[in-house]
Amino acid sequence: MDKRCDNGFEKVWEESEREAAGLSLSRQDVSEICNMHEGYVKQIETGSKLPALPLLLKICEMLHTSPNYLFEFSEDKDVQDVLELLYTLTPDQLKAVKHMISSYLEFKEKMEE
Fold this sequence. Notes:
By secondary structure, the protein is mostly helical. Helices cover 65% and strands 0% of the residues. It has 8 helices and no strands. The protein has helices spanning 9-13, 15-20, 27-33, 38-46, 53-63, 67-70, 77-86, 91-112.
């Protein structure tokens, strides 16, 4: 019986996927950046282990992606692009964007009435 975890890392960490994303990280590079054993990186890649949340977030930051993308919660490229941009904002910038989106949605709702 296959006990692998369907964790999305295998897809993202495949060499071709890393290269397409502009990343040239080896398993050793990932292990050094994340301060973990190279064997553990392999277990995450193959789906036999899942990382703890702090490590997951560090890995996502390193891969310039989000947990949502890794776990395929959002398959829409536009949503992924917006999320990537949002992750680069300061807290004040994020508040401003949130306000702009709320204002836009309120305006749109009024226009549809």
